[in-house]
């Protein structure tokens, strides 16, 4: 790098050192701006602005060698695709959408890191493309995109920065964030204008490269993949298990150390055995798209653990691969999917298409910003700034055709070539934003609704973002399920004794018809959850009333203070046997409530075995024992019993269609006996009235009738089931509860009592209809309603 004195004397309009020779700027036709507008200079100010400063520049002697000859190739498909050239020889076709660019260089890297530059001279419909003979799978590459530097109009092209192909199917190398990877001079003394000063240092030594992946490597062995059978679990029968690929097996004693924390580790029989023993039907994987770590975390010696910082929407995150990162991660991911499918488990990906790891105008230039900043991101009225509806610095501009194509191409790729069964869309409201706010007729939702591949998979929205009007729970169209945070809040409030009346709880336990019945949606549009990756674990929910996020290095300012939790009498871990017993009972109550509710239940990995994060409710940067599952908990009989209860509740749900109804309850009394498909009872054994719903309560009963369910089996025959009475009591003292008599039941069989520590087998106790029982404090009882015939058989 040259001296500061030499830098100050350089002309602002010099071409970037090492770049190929281009048409002089005064002979180019301006693209996307007013005719004749002067290009911004390397010092970051267009003509007419006051401040001038020169950015650091690379030494000219570091210019790379010219690459091999580039044939015209094809603009389709986008990305790097190995194929045969016009003479039949193998090579790779490269295609990059870069709408406003003036030139594009393909940069090829050998195993020693030496760079060869190949100008892509063919431009078709804003796609730069070319075929390079002899480039085969495993070759690393990137792009340098040339154009104007004019941050005041949103133009941030900088060919000194090596860019990751947005369509790269594998990524090799780690993202470090030294000053060289920023398109602007990150450490410019005047920080308020730092983003306007172009940094001309080469970023190639510091950024990962895309990897050419062959279709055979992407598809796995064809004879293996064609034998894959998707489970295709109906929505109403689904039980989702949210897990982290790395955290699930990092401490698993049954997984070989070299496989822990990887796709291969999750595919290991020991890992899958736990999932099948529980009985879950789908895993929802925290982000597995290639992601980068934030600068503020790296400076504190931390890493992004959750992965909500995507930079490569086609590439499995290389850090989770056991077998290599030169394309091997693709096959390893697919083998994981096959293993899960073979066990009857679907794979749902948590995807982050709302923003990227490039952050705001002060963030690094890694991919889309350098390809076409204005084409990919939403910019404010001052186009130097980014519109931020995500809280992460930027928002993808999904109304742009090329952005829609990027997202939908990515989604289809993961379905058709990687085998996944659905997606959970992080901050989905940001994707549904049109020109004037969130719109359920937005281009993104319209494209998904008509897509013959995507409309067939499971689609789950996180129905909010951080912008105005972003909270959209209940508003997404048919085909979509939603994370139902109102379910979470109502159940937490009920069990900590702060629910003001019974109305909210009644709606949430019965499928949230007030939110989802309109528009032809079903109860399974509600993904019911009590905990998720962000927030307290289930154990911490009953152990802490305040967040304890000091390990994150942000002074405990991060994470929500609204946890709706109760510590049961002591903050954090305690030796008090009374507090410990109450906490375990509350865990049983929460799990029973979740798995007996109408809708789709979602568990978080480890909640069934008492996992704790020590009160950290925002462990996004805790890639350590705080964030990983502690499998040694299963050695504790108490936590082992909780796991067994969870599995038993899932088996009960699977065995009884009345507990997983695909249609909403009507609540209408049907002749001749006046039975309802759903009836609510007070502790006096009487049906709840209007005034009861508006009154505070700690105890209520829900009767679910299994007669004449609104569904038919595959042969068209009507489906019927047992009827059940669920009793929930959140109060601190026992209450007398009169069990409903005829016509509801002639008697009852006790199946579940969360007041009991052990739940190995149904208690089998028979209870008289119309008679009072003592309902234990803070407990859930599940009773099977018996007819006269049932009662006679039980007593004979």
From TrEMBL:
Glycosyl hydrolase family 13 catalytic domain sequence ranges: 242-653
NCBIfam families named in the record: glgX_debranch
Ranges of biased composition (kind: Basic and acidic residues): 7-34, 548-561
Family designation: Belongs to the glycosyl hydrolase 13 family.
Alphabetical list of SUPFAM superfamilies matching this protein: (Trans)glycosidases, E set domains, Glycosyl hydrolase domain
Region of interest called Disordered, as start-end residue ranges on this chain: 1-84, 548-579
Name of the protein in its database record: Glycogen debranching protein GlgX
Alphabetized UniProt keyword annotations: Glycosidase, Hydrolase
Gene name of the encoded protein: glgX
Any single Pfam family the record assigns to this protein: CBM_48
């Amino acid at each position: 790098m040259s001296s500061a004195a030499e830098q100050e004397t350089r002309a602002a309009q010099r071409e970037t050192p090492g770049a190929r020779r281009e048409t002089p700027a005064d002979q180019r036709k301006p693209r996307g701006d007013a005719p004749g507008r002067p290009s911004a200079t390397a010092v970051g100010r267009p003509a007419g602005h006051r401040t001038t400063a020169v950015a650091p520049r690379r030494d000219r002697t570091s210019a790379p060698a010219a690459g091999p000859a580039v044939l015209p190739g094809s603009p389709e498909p986008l990305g790097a695709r190995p194929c045969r050239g016009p003479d039949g020889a193998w090579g790779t076709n490269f295609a990059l959408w870069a709408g406003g660019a003036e030139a594009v260089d393909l940069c090829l890297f050998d195993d020693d890191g030496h760079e060869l530059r190949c100008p892509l001279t063919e431009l078709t419909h804003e796609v730069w493309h070319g075929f390079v003979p002899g480039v085969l799978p495993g070759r690393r590459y990137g792009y340098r995109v040339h154009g104007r530097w004019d941050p005041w109009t949103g133009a941030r092209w900088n060919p000194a920065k090596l860019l990751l192909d947005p369509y790269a199917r594998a990524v090799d190398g780690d993202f470090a964030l030294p000053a060289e990877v920023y398109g602007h001079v990150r450490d410019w003394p005047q920080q308020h204008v730092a983003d306007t000063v172009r940094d001309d240092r080469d970023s190639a030594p510091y950024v990962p490269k895309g990897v050419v992946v062959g279709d055979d490597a992407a598809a796995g062995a064809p004879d293996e993949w064609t034998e894959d059978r998707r489970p295709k679990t109906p929505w109403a029968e689904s039980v989702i298990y949210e897990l982290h690929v790395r955290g699930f097996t990092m401490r698993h004693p049954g997984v070989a150390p070299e496989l822990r924390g990887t796709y291969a580790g999750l595919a290991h029989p020991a890992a899958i055995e736990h999932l099948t023993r529980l009985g879950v039907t789908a895993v929802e994987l925290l982000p597995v798209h290639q992601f980068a770590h934030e600068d503020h975390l790296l400076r504190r010696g931390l890493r992004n653990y959750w992965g909500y910082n995507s930079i490569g929407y086609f590439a499995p995150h290389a850090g989770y691969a056991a077998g290599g990162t030169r394309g091997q991660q693709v096959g390893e991911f697919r083998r994981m999917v096959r293993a899960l499918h073979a066990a009857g488990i679907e794979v749902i990906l948590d995807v982050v298409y709302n923003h990227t790891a490039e952050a705001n105008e002060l963030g690094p230039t890694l991919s889309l910003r350098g390809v076409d900043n204005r084409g990919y991101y939403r910019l404010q009225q001052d186009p130097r700034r980014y519109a931020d509806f995500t809280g992460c610095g930027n928002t993808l501009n999904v109304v742009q055709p090329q952005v829609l194509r990027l997202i939908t191409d990515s989604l289809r790729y993961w379905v058709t070539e990687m085998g996944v069964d659905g997606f959970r869309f992080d901050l989905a409201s940001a994707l549904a934003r049109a020109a004037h706010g969130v719109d359920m007729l937005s281009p993104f939702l319209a494209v998904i609704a008509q897509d013959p591949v995507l409309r067939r998979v499971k689609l789950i929205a996180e129905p909010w973002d951080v912008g105005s009007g972003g909270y959209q729970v209940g508003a997404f169209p048919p085909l979509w399920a939603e994370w139902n945070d109102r379910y979470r809040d109502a159940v937490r409030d009920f069990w900590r004794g702060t629910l003001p009346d019974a109305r909210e709880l009644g709606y949430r336990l019965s499928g949230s018809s007030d939110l989802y019945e309109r528009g032809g949606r079903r109860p399974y549009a509600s993904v019911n959850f009590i905990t998720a990756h962000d927030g307290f674990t289930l154990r911490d929910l009953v152990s802490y009333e305040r967040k304890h996020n000091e390990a994150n290095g942000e002074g405990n300012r991060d994470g929500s203070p609204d946890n709706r939790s109760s510590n049961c009498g002591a903050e954090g871990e305690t030796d008090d046997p009374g507090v410990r017993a109450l906490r375990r009972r509350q865990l049983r109550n929460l799990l029973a409530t979740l798995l007996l509710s109408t809708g789709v239940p979602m568990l978080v990995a480890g909640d069934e075995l008492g996992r704790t994060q020590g009160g950290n409710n925002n462990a996004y940067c805790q890639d350590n024992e705080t964030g990983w599952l502690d499998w040694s908990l299963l050695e504790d009989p108490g936590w082992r019993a909780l796991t067994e209860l969870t599995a038993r509740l899932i088996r009960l749900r699977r065995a009884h269609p009345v507990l997983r109804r695909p249609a909403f309850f009507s609540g209408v009394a049907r002749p001749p006996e006046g039975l309802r498909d759903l009836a609510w009872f007070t502790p006096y054994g009487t049906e709840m009235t209007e005034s009861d719903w508006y009154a505070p309560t700690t105890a209520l009963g829900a009767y679910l009738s299994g007669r004449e369910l609104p569904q038919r089996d595959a042969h068209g025959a009507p489906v019927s089931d047992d009827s059940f009475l669920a009793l929930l009591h959140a109060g601190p003292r026992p209450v007398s509860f009169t069990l409903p008599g005829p016509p509801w039941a002639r008697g009852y069989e006790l199946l579940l009592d969360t007041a009991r520590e052990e739940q190995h087998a149904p208690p089998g106790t028979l209870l008289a209809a119309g008679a009072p029982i003592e309902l234990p404090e803070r407990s859930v009882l599940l009773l099977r309603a018996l007819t006269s015939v049932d009662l006679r058989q039980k007593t004979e």
